[in-house]
Specification:
Blueprint: H1 3-10, H2 27-34, E1 41-44, H3 51-60, E2 65-69, H4 73-82, E3 89-92, H5 99-103, E4 108-114, H6 119-122, H7 147-150, H8 156-164, H9 171-184, H10 190-200, H11 213-225, H12 227-236, H13 238-241, E5 242-252, H14 255-270, E6 274-276, H15 286-291, E7 299-305
Parallel strand pairs: 1-2, 1-4, 2-3, 4-5
Antiparallel strand pairs: 5-7, 6-7
Helix pairs in contact: 8-9, 9-10, 12-14
The structure holds S-adenosylmethionine.
């Protein structure tokens, strides 16, 4: 197996259950990169629990404007309630890939994407955590088809491809086991999926360093939500969304996503459409990792539109 792939999902072990409230990741670094100024208009494609949002709102002041987006209905409803008296804030419950249509030609001074799920979503029974037994949804949005339904029609080869993408070395036996289990007794909960995965791999899976669900859950989450496609679509449209001089910051938690951000930003810089704000991605300090272990795999990349 290639070492990049191996590294890829070692980083993505954050679908472990957490009871902590959401702590915004790389907060200072992100605010420095976005550099929000009084009166500016910001678009937040992943507003989540408003961690970054509150700081940006404090910087853009009373004349600023904020479009807060979250695909998860519950998160969007909470944001609507929390900011209902703030005339600067508009909340939309949509996929960030649709931001250009939402803006209808209006351009922002800044765009933030902080990918993945929020801590609250791990607790919300959406099937993101392999340490809980919940319905196997794996979707951010209730309008998307849940994994337990999709699994019923995927071929063994398709399941294999989904798992392989994450560098899972047991993709083949895992795919076979899931496919066969579906024929006998459809897999409908996260607990059942973990059980099937456990039976497909050696007892000491990855020498005990990794949960058997780490890579598989990541692969299914990416597939079911079309995460790489959504990211590609919005990043290809940055110059339609953000005006010249405006900034775009993206926080990723695994290397499949970081690779997309890196390549698209590099291409835009080469084409003279954007300027990289820093060459290498910024990561968390040891102190941040200590205080918020979820930040350990975070990478921030940012550009300024020309
Ligand atoms: C890591 S959290 C963001 C946390 C936020 N920055 C904060 O500090 O509270 C990511 C959020 O993005 C949402 N999300 C994931 N994919 C999305 C998509 N394609 N479009 C819109 N929201 C999405 C999730 O529901 C989640 O609430």
């Amino acid at each position: 197996m290639d070492s990049t792939k191996n590294k890829n999902t070692e980083e993505q072990s954050d679908s472990r259950a957490s009871t902590r409230t959401h702590i915004p990741v790389l907060l200072n670094e992100t605010i420095d990169a976005l550099d929000p100024q009084p009166g500016e208009f910001f678009v937040d494609g992943t507003a989540g629990e408003a961690g970054h949002m509150k700081v940006i709102l404090s910087k853009i002041g009373p004349t600023g404007k904020y479009l807060a987006i979250d695909w998860n209905k519950l998160n969007a409803e909470r944001l609507r309630e929390e900011f209902k008296d703030d005339h600067r804030v508009r909340v939309e419950n949509v996929n960030f890939a649709g931001i250009p249509e939402l803006l209808r030609g209006e351009k922002a001074d800044g765009l933030l994407l902080d990918l993945g799920f929020s801590s609250g979503e791990l607790e919300a029974g959406r099937g993101f955590s392999f340490q809980k037994d919940e319905p196997l949804l794996m979707t951010y949005s209730d309008e998307e088809e849940p994994l337990y339904k999709v699994l019923k029609r995927l071929s063994e080869k398709e399941i294999f491809e989904i798992l392989k993408l994450t560098g899972e070395r047991y993709s083949r036996p895992m795919a076979k086991a899931i496919f066969e289990a579906e024929r006998k007794h459809p897999v409908e909960t996260t607990g059942e999926l973990v059980e099937v995965l456990q039976k497909a791999v050696p007892g000491r899976y990855e020498a005990g360093r990794l949960n058997v669900g780490t890579r598989a859950f990541l692969g299914f989450r990416i597939y079911i939500n079309r995460e790489l496609e959504n990211l590609n679509r919005i990043l290809e449209a940055t110059t339609d969304v953000v005006k010249p001089g405006g900034r775009v910051a993206v926080i990723t938690f695994q290397s499949l996503e970081d690779k997309i951000v890196k390549e698209i930003f590099k291409k835009q810089a080469k084409e003279g459409k954007a300027e990289l704000l820093f060459k290498k991605p910024l990561g968390p300090t040891l102190r941040e990792i200590r205080e918020n272990p979820r930040s350990r795999s975070a990478k921030l990349r940012a550009i300024r539109i020309i």
